[in-house]
Specification:
By secondary structure, the protein is an all-alpha fold. 73% of the residues lie in helices and 0% in strands. It starts with a helix and ends in a 5-residue tail after the last helix. The model has no long low-confidence stretch (mean pLDDT 85).
Length: 279
């Protein structure tokens, strides 16, 4: 019995060591970006792992961003794209998940499997077709092009997660509402708060890749007026010279909104994961 407890303690310690090592690997690059964003250029390359001192401290990168009048617009464009995409994903995904989980009709299983294919096939494989489609719709260099593409990217996972949660909502609750005269739309809105953990999971899983994406903004919306913050940061990269102070400052500031959103949705994400949202 003592040997069993020792073995269990060792397994727990090993798991904690693995998680700590993974957390260190994930956070350390972020830490390097933040501490180097407040250094002068020579100090960044001389000792990138050291904290800023009184001699090396410099906010020249942030001053460059304030002088760049377009940078606030880059943040606004990213916010519009991310929030617009998340709104459409949650609205359309929850409606589709409600229909698939609530009604039995011919082709229900096939439609569910067809939607799941989108999780397994990267949408970037269809970049050329998407580009042609956006040209035909005259949506090139508009934020709508990014919103539509990101919505299509996030819908399969949203439908998969939300369907699982909606099937677990007690049917007696929904039938009681119908007996009281509630319409199907009323039943849908009534059960939506009950699947908040799944909605939080969907939001966190989608907002981070949308905010950090460079591929589709570069192809579908490269003009100055609709640049996202990730694409706008590329303007500090030159062919022969890079403004590393401005790049690191821009990356540091771009982390803040996504960290705030993650903190807001983190409780729902944990509840969603522990409730079996991702199986």
């Amino acid at each position: 019995m003592l040997r069993g407890r020792v073995g269990q303690t060792g397994q727990v310690a090993l798991a904690h060591m693995f998680l700590l090592a993974y957390a260190f690997l994930a956070v350390f690059p972020v830490f390097l970006v933040v501490i180097n964003s407040v250094k002068e250029r020579r100090a960044i390359f001389r000792d990138p792992y050291a904290l800023a001192t009184a001699e090396s401290f410099s906010l020249v990168g942030y001053e460059t961003l304030t002088k760049n009048g377009n940078f606030p617009n880059y943040f606004l464009n990213s916010a519009v794209v991310v929030f617009g995409s998340l709104f459409l994903i949650m609205l359309l995904g929850s409606m589709c998940a409600f229909a698939l989980s609530e009604y039995s009709f011919k082709g229900n299983t096939f439609i569910g499997l067809y939607m799941s294919i989108g999780i397994m096939i990267p949408i970037r494989l269809g970049t050329v077709s998407l580009l042609r489609l956006m040209v035909d719709l005259k949506l090139i260099n508009t934020l709508w092009a990014l919103i539509f593409v990101y919505t299509a990217t996030g819908l399969p996972l949203a439908i998969f997660i939300l369907s699982s949660f909606m099937r677990d909502v007690p049917r007696d609750l929904k039938d009681a509402a119908r007996v009281d005269g509630a319409s199907e739309y009323r039943v849908y809105w009534m059960i939506l708060p009950l699947v908040r953990p799944a909605l939080g999971t969907v939001a966190v899983f989608n907002m981070i890749p949308f905010w950090n994406d460079l591929w589709f903004p570069l192809i579908l919306a490269p003009s100055e007026g609709v640049k996202t913050v990730t694409l706008g940061t590329q303007s500090f990269l030159g062919q022969f010279l890079n403004d590393w102070n401005a790049i690191l400052a821009a990356l540091t500031l771009s982390m803040i909104p996504i960290i705030i959103l993650y903190v807001i949705f983190s409780r729902q994400l944990v509840r969603g994961l522990t409730s079996g949202a991702v199986k």
